[in-house]
Amino acid sequence: MPPAPVSPAAERLYARDRVVAGVEKLRFFPLALESGQGSWLVEAGGRRLLDLSATWTACGLGHGHPAVREALLRAASAPPGAGALSAVHEDAVALAEDLLDLTPGSGDRRVYFGHAGSDANDVAIRSAVHATGRPTVLAFEHSYHGGIGIAMKASGVHVDAGSVARDQHVRFTPYPDPYRAPERYEDVLAQLEEALAGGDVACLLVEPILSDGGLVVPPDGFLAEVAARCSAAGTLLVCDEVKVGLGRPGTWHAFEHDGITPDIVTFGKSLGAGVPISAAVGPAGVLDEPAASALLTQAGNPYSTAVARAVLATMKAEGLVERAADAGDRLREGLRQATEHLDVVGDVRGRGLAVGVDLVTDRGNRDRAPDLAARAVYRVWELGGVVFYVGGNVLEVTPPLVITDAEVDRAVELLAQGIQEAADGKVSDAQIAPYAGW
Ligand code: PMP
Description:
single chain, alpha/beta, seven-stranded mixed sheet, four-stranded mixed sheet, globular, binds 4'-deoxy-4'-aminopyridoxal-5'-phosphate
């Protein structure tokens, strides 16, 4: 039997429902956290949970990393006190240089600093519209690019859910689906070409791996096809690396897999290891436009930039990009073996430590099993892990990049057992009832 999940300390945190707005997204199970260390989170009351959702906890480096603490202390001990004057202190300038070094591109380029993936994408889109003089934004169906402004309106998942009104200037085109509809790939490319044909599209946003839409890895070469079509149409290609980029796919950038050079690249989440910071890297002629010059007061602030520099330096020093590749191979292989006998596991896919487990009603029909996904994440939490689902039925397994082999093996056990026991009816309707519907 797993330990009793709900402690008096956790009860205290459930008060969030009465005082914090918009928390329903995280209601997969009654999560209440106290601290974290490495790949582990500590639940209120002291139970340890393996973090298999570091794209949500935004911490590729692992929790409580000394490099983050030191960077924050250094910045706090002698703060240059620069808010909107983001480029007047060393950490902002050095971080911009680091990001330019890290990101392929040519010519005169700039780095825009924001607070969240959402505002980096928002600025990228508005700058592209301004620079090209074209009115239209193109994005993929089931995409996620942000929760504010035009980035939200260019997010297929938000538009589908009705959380934002459709914008007349935003269009959507299908993303490939190698698991459920491989035969439609040519049609996906044809529709993309058609969407770009009018010459009115300022930019196309793409997630190199569709994440919130269901951890879909497109066919090899897809991004090269996309880049070629954008280039022919005079449309700027914006690669959104916010969730699965920055080392997680086993390369610094997810788009490297197809060897492309996007016009604009956006970063967020794990760049700040929990401290708010995001960035858009792109041509000076685009990012120096007025859309990006409306600086947010604390963008590029000394604390966030100090931490982001430390994150990049630590990733290099600890070889975390290579680690993500190796650990990811072990994780996918382990999951495939451990779930081979489970007919409800239709597909285990991913790249590096961005892994999706597609739950189905049976392997033959590949029908999505959202009810099982809700029960499985609940059961995994009861057993001692934190994992969420995306696209309705896909467990998104994205541990911190520092995960050890032994922890990968534990993750495999937890997930296989959690899925099996959820399928066997160990999670009751009453348990998951409050958490339905993501
Ligand atoms: N882009 C992608 C691909 C994302 O997954 C997200 C967040 N889920 C965002 C952008 C927005 O990032 P943030 O929540 O930091 O604004």
